[in-house]
Structures are given as structure tokens and as C-alpha cells.
# Entry
Amino acid sequence: MGFRIPERSVIPRFPVIFGDVMLERGSGKPLPHVYPATGHTTCELITAGPGDVESAIGAARAAFPAWRALSGDKRRDLMLKLAGLIEQRSKEFAELLSLENGAPIVAGPYMVMDAVQKFRYFAGWADKIQGETLGSWAGPAHNYVSYEPYGVIGVIVPWNGPLYAATMVMAPALAAGNCVVVKSPELAPFSVMRLGELFREAGFPPGVVNTLVGGPEIGEAIVASAGIDKIQFVGSGATARKILRTAADSLKPCGLELGGKSAVIVFADADLQLAGRRGLAGAISASGQGCVNGTRLLVERPIYENYLKSLQTIAPHIRIGDPFDPATIMGPIISEASVQRILGVVENAVQRDGARLLMGGERMGGDHAQGYYLPITVIADVAGDSALAQNEVFGPVLAVTPFDTEEEAIALANGTSYGLGAYIHTENLRRAHSVASQMQAGIVQVNGSGEGMQPYAPFGGMKHSGHGRLGGEQGLFEFLQVKNVWMNLAKPAPAQVAK
Ligand code: NAD
# Structure
């Protein structure tokens, strides 16, 4: 019978939006969009070309002085209006999220509300950006600090959570008084396209927000442009390295939100059922294609085999299938190339590195075979220094490793180049605090698996997971420059009278 192929009519029309211009065709390459649940092409977009990038940056630069000068309360009200519009279109956004990358429709309302809440939260900051006064060691002076927007922020986001990533940058950047040029990801372009349209409906001045669909060459053009004052990148470490090289020529600052290999530490005193469900979330959430998914399960030896059994008991109840079926919990992988790459990782872990395949590991058949489907795959007895334990897989693959002591668990958790998330399962308060304080990770959750990641909390990584924070007050200050003004208040000395 096959999975439902969604209506084409929901697909947004404008791959290029800048200033007061909305184009149904950019000046760049044709881009067929493939729906990963069926492998069908949904539409062919004509993407932005280099000329469109320059037009978008020009529009943003032209809009910046007035946007910066607009009082905070007016920026706040526009952002609140936009949040309301996103909420009103919740159903439509949820469908676009499923269509663009196969996210289950059941997750849509949460993802849309997350975008709404980000704009509401940062709208609350737009009218509260204030300076400070300092003392003076150099005689009487009025000495103060002010916070000012950068100008135009170039925003580049990945396909796995385009609305999530774009809004976590756009909301604070706009609240701080910047304009933005956002590149929508080529594999999943629809939600950011629709978002671009809504800014006009909300009454934002033309040019404050500009959205372009395009591939790496459009991202490169944004990074290289002299009209961009700061880059905020969300994506892989490999691309971040290229971006930093390009940005070096203009000494452009770059905020980086990159990948992870986050550990889930399960101590013997943990609630086993809860820890089992939370452990599987690393494979299920976004089909394992999430930057902060807990994908390395470190389990204390006395409960190790029982924990593996609990994973085997729970996993078969997870419905994997048609993203538009409300009963579906887990959707497809983004592409055929990713499926092949992930199967190769599994084969190497088992055949070459001697780990134990507990479940999954093969492409799904039946209706699933037409699309890019992999089952929840759990690999046990994974050595901490093996390729599977060290590298981001970006698929529904969990690596499980036993440990004997708290110190060993901490060493294993910190023993990769990444430092995005860490999850600790224990009922022991001392241990929870102590282990959390020793995690080399930007986000630590105790007995949780993501629900603490809210717009008011700083989100970001240590080590190769990036730097800078999005979310919370720290996220706002990523988009503000600091200025110190010292004003001499000393009376000029009386002029010497010549005899
Ligand atoms: P990617 O790095 O391949 O692409 C990300 C974006 O960069 C895309 O829009 C792409 O077109 C663009 N790009 C590619 N080459 C470029 C270049 N040379 N110059 C400028 N832009 C360029 O990543 P992906 O495969 O789309 O996404 C998956 C990665 O993103 C994973 O590593 C994941 O962990 C990470 N991620 C991180 C976060 C976070 O908040 N830390 C969130 C989501 C995803």
C-alpha cells in the first residue's frame, strides 16, 4: 500500500525573499526535494544564486539603521505578533516539518511551539537591553558600558531541525536589533521558507529578515561577504572548519553550534524503566539525527544485562513508519546516502571492532523499503575508544558500554572530542551533582532526556561541539557588541596667566 504522499499544495512558493521582493525562482540551481519516507520528489525549487545573496545582504544593510533605531518595545511587539502567527499556523508548520525531513507529525506541535516560545521569550528581552555605569580610576568621569547590535547576521542551519535551529538564532539576533540573512538548508527547505513569509505578515520592515534556499555555495557566499558582520552556524564540525577558513579573510566572528556524541550514564541505583526509555530516546528522537541525542549509553556493570533487556523490551513498541500517521513515533533517515553510511558504521562496529549487535542493523523491508528507513539499532560491548564510541553517527544507532566505577563512567563520558550533552541517571543526589560538575558538556540533564532544553536556558557545546550559546540571556549577548564610553568630567585647569 505504501505511505501517504503528502499534498504538494502545502509547499511554500518562495525560495528567495529579500527586502520587499519574493521570488518563486531564484537565480541559482534547480533543487529537487526528496521526501525521505517514500523517496519521491515533492517539487523542484530554483534556489538562490550569488546575485540573490548580494541582494539579500544589501536589503539587510539598508534596513539595519532603522531597525536598530526602533525602540525595544516596538521590536518586542513585532516579535510577539510573529509568535502568534506561527502558533496560528501550527498545523501547517507541522506538515511542512514532516514533509521536509520526515519528522513524525506527532512531534510537529512540540517543534512549532518551541519556535513560538523562542520568539515570545526573546521578545521579552527586546525592551530590556540596558547598559551599566562603571566607576573611574582616572579622575571624575562618566564611565559606562552599552550593548549594541552587530548589524547583519548570516545564519546557516542544517536539515535535521531547520525551524529549531533557525529560530534559536533569529529570535535573539532580532531582539538585539540585528537584521538577518538566513540560508534555509537544501535538504529540508520548507519550514524556514514559510517562516520568511510570516515576517512580512507580522509587519516587520522589509529587509530585516531575508531568507534564501541554497546549498553550500550560497552558505560560502554569505560567509565571504563584506556585508555580513557575524556568522551564526549550526551544523557539522567539517563544515565549521571550512566556514572558519573563509571567515578568516575578513576576521568575521563566527558562533558555532556543532555535533555531539553525548553520553547517557546509567548508575545501578537509577530507575531502570525510566532510564531505558530515556536511553532509547537517543535513537528515536529525529531518528537519531539530533545533535544532542544521547547516543552512548554507559551502564554500571551490575545492571548492564538487565538494562540491555529493558531496551529490547521497550524498542518493539516504538512505531516506525509513515510520518503523517499520528501513531508513528519514529520516521525515516534523511537520504539514501545516509542509510548506506550508517549501515557501514554498524558493520564496522560489529565485524571489525567486535561489538555485539543486540537489535536492528538492517534496512527495513515492506512499506519501509521504498523510503530511507532504519530500525532502532543497539550495539553492546562497545569499546570506549572505538570508532562507534568516538564519532557522531547521525542515525538510530546506540552504542552501549559497561563501567565499574564512577571515575570510569566520567572518563568514558568525557573521552571524545565532543562536548554537547550529557545525561545522568541516578537517585543519589551527591553523585548527581558531583558527576554533573565533572562533565565536559555544555548541557547536562539529570534523569531527563531533553525536556530541560528550553528557550530560557543556554544551549551550546564545549570542545568540538562548538562555542557560544543560543538560548537564555547568554544567547542574547551572542548578538550584542560591548562598548565602553569614558567621559572626562574633570574641570579644565585654569589657564596660566603670563606675567
Ligand atoms: P552540514 O555541516 O553538512 O550543513 C549545515 C549547513 O551548512 C547546510 O545548510 C549546508 O548547506 C551549509 N554548508 C555546507 N557547506 C558549507 C560551506 N562550505 N560554507 C557555508 N555553508 C555550508 O550539516 P548537516 O548535515 O546539514 O547537519 C548535521 C550536523 O549538524 C550534525 O553534525 C549535527 O550534530 C549538527 N547540528 C548541530 C546542532 C546544534 O545546535 N549544536 C543542531 C542541529 C544539528
